[in-house]
Structures are given as C-alpha cells and as structure tokens.
Design brief:
Layout (H helix, E strand, L loop, with lengths): L1 E5 L4 H12 L3 E6 L16 E5 L5 H8 L4 E4 L6 H6 L1 H22 L3 E7 L22 H20 L2 E7 L2 E2 L12 H11 L4 E3 L5 E2 L2 E2 H11 L8 E5 L5 E2 H11 L9 E3 L14 H7 L7 H16 L2
Parallel strand pairs: 1-2, 1-4, 2-3, 4-5, 5-6, 6-11, 7-10, 8-13
Antiparallel strand pairs: 9-12
The chain binds nicotinamide-adenine-dinucleotide.
The site of nicotinamide-adenine-dinucleotide (NAD) has 28 residues, from helix 1, helix 4 and strand 5.
C-alpha cells in the first residue's frame, strides 16, 4: 500500500513519515520546502521517495498521486500571523492547493485522504470545550482557509465517495518543530529561549490558554483516521483534552530543564487573530477513531526538551 504525505518535510508531516517508514510502508513525500526542510527526512531518506513541488501545480500533484492508496494532506502555510500579513498567498496554498490535492486524489482513485484541519476554525467563542458540532467562527484568513479545506474534503466524500477525514489539530508540539521562524509556535520558541538562557516573549499577559498536543499523538490519530470505518465524511478534534496557560507552559519547560523557575518573560501586545482560550472535547475521536492522547503535556515537553538539547549538542 502506498502513502502520499503532502508537506512531508514539515514538522507534522515528517513525524508521520518517520512512523510510516518504521512500519516499512511505501511513502511518497510532496513538498516545496517553503516552510519545511528535507533534512527532517535524512534518517529515513532511503525509505521515502521525495518529490520537490507545489501542491498548486496539477501535473506535479498528479505525478505524486500515482498508485497511492492513502493521502495525509499536511502541506499548508500554517500560520495565523502570516495569513494576516499576506492573505492571498495563504488562501492560494491552503484552499486552492487543498482543492488541487483533492481533485487529483479523486481522479487517481485514492481510497482515503486525511486532512490536517485546525482548531483555529472555532475562533474566540466563549464556550469551552470546543465540540465538532459547534458553529465555526474563524477569525483569520488562515482559519477561514482551513475551514474551506474541511468543507471541500467533506464535499468530495459526499459527491465522489473519496473517503476524507478532517482532523482539527490543537497546538501541536514536539521534536523537529522549527523555533527559528518569525512565525514559530510557542513551545519551540519558549524552549529555544530557555536553552539560550534568554527570557521568552509572550504576546499578551500569558494567562491565555491552549490545549497542547504532542506530535506523536497526532501521528496516532492520523493512522487511525486512515483506517477507522466510521470516520469518512467527518471532522474530529485531535488534542490533549486539557488546557494550560502560557505561564504554566514556561514553568513546565523550566522544570524539564531541571530549573526551579523560568526567567521572567517579556510581554508584547496581543497578536491580531489569536484566540484567548482553547480546549478540545475529544470524545468523538475517542469513540470513532479509538484515539487516546497517550503522551501527556509534561511527558511530551520532556521528550521535546531532550530532543532540542541533543540537536543543540550536535
Ligand atoms: N502545528 C500545529 O500546531 C498545527 C495546528 C493545526 C493545524 N496544523 C496543520 O497541520 C499541517 C502541518 O503543519 P506543520 O506545523 O507541520 O507546519 P510546517 O510548516 O512544518 O509544514 C508544512 C509543510 O508544507 C510544505 N508546504 C507549504 N506550502 C506548500 C506548497 N505550496 N506545496 C507543497 N508543500 C508546501 C512546507 O514546506 C512544509 O514542509 C498544516 O496543514 C497546518 O495547517 C498544524
């Protein structure tokens, strides 16, 4: 059985590739290396066929899709801030690119496509935890694009029988996440600052909260979503199922580094489009996918800190 991972040189896509390669699967990666890095696949280079190309390019996508049974569609420009600065490119990659992948998958007779959706579609509505049947309220071009991708995926199931499953990831973190970009997520930024002995930058007061999800739990969810009988045509929250403030997170990172307390953070103004609190109800993923967030935040932070330390030591 052949698997295509779009965005396979990215943080989450590469984690899926590592797992598939460890299971001896036939893996194709399609990535244009815009935010990704092929070095993430170095250790499994012999087990993966790498195609450098853009998901908006129909011919390239068709070539990557040949003989594929299952697609994990991870490629996107994955940043709220970037989408606020450049909504046209965000829409082009995240919406038109997703539609191009779906259309190619349909024509190639792919069995199932698992789509990387996002918790950002819930927006800043006050009710917590977020359940999949709540009305979405996307607040940024990124969130609107991710929701459009879900809706296209669902339509391709209803119209053409392509088995699509959307997984709404909540704040994923773990090894191989890039701390350097201006758009970097909070966990790698905080860890990089702590390792450098520098204060972390927090946008806002630090009491905003997130449901952080360790990347290996996300990989599990993807593999389950690729097989679970009741999954096609549906949307599932994938998260840890608990919420923590950014200040809690800082303290946890300090503890993982064996320090008593973190350095006091530097506060900057809130970023437009960011939501205040986020927490997932993961009952649907438990019931239909058999998903369980096996690695909790504390254990995930320890594994992640160890990985960054090892990388820094190279
Ligand atoms: N990281 C999170 O917390 C999170 C949360 C919710 C949803 N997601 C979604 O998960 C997916 C993976 O995110 P990530 O954190 O691994 O990001 P990432 O930036 O590390 O990975 C995205 C990958 O897509 C590739 N890519 C971008 N544009 C492309 C294009 N036009 N053609 C081909 N490849 C292209 C990039 O080079 C990169 O390798 C994205 O779809 C993102 O929206 C991530």
């Amino acid at each position: 059985m052949r698997y295509l991972v779009t965005g396979g040189a990215g943080f989450i896509g590469s984690a899926i590739c590592h797992r598939l390669a460890a299971e001896g699967r036939d893996v194709i990666v399609l990535d244009n290396f815009s935010t990704g890095d092929p070095k993430r696949l170095d250790a499994i280079r012999d087990a993966v066929t790498l195609i450098e190309g853009d998901i908006r390019d129909r011919e390239t996508v068709d070539r990557a899709m040949r003989g594929v049974d299952t697609v994990f569609h991870e490629a996107a420009l994955p940043s709220v801030a970037r989408s606020v600065e450049d909504p046209l490119t965000s829409n082009d990659v995240n919406v038109s690119g997703t539609l191009t992948v779906l259309e190619s998958a349909r024509r190639a007779g792919v069995r199932r496509l698992v789509y990387a959706a996002s918790s950002s579609v819930y927006g800043d509505t006050p009710s917590l935890p977020k359940r999949e049947d709540m009305p979405p309220s996307p607040r940024s071009p990124y969130a609107i694009g991710k929701l459009a991708g879900e809706r296209y995926a669902e339509a391709y199931f209803r119209l053409f029988g392509l088995e699509t499953v959307s997984l709404r990831y909540f704040n994923v973190f773990g090894p191989r996440q890039d701390p350097r970009s201006h758009y970097a997520a909070v966990v790698p930024r905080f860890i990089a600052a702590a390792l450098a002995g520098a204060p972390a930058t927090i946008y806002g007061d630090g009491f905003q909260s997130r449901d952080f999800t360790f990347v290996e739990n996300v990989v599990d969810a993807n593999l389950r979503a690729a097989e679970a009988p009741g999954a096609p045509g549906n949307v599932f929250n994938i998260a840890g199922g608990r919420r923590h403030t950014l200040l809690d997170l800082l303290a946890m990172i300090a503890a993982a580094l064996g320090r008593d307390a973190p350095l006091p953070p530097v506060h900057e103004p809130d970023r437009p489009g960011d939501v205040r609190h986020s927490l997932a109800d993961i009952a649907a993923a438990r019931a239909t996918l058999g998903y369980e967030p096996a690695i909790d935040l504390r254990a995930g932070i320890r594994k992640t800190v160890d990985w960054y330390r090892r990388e820094a030591g190279r």
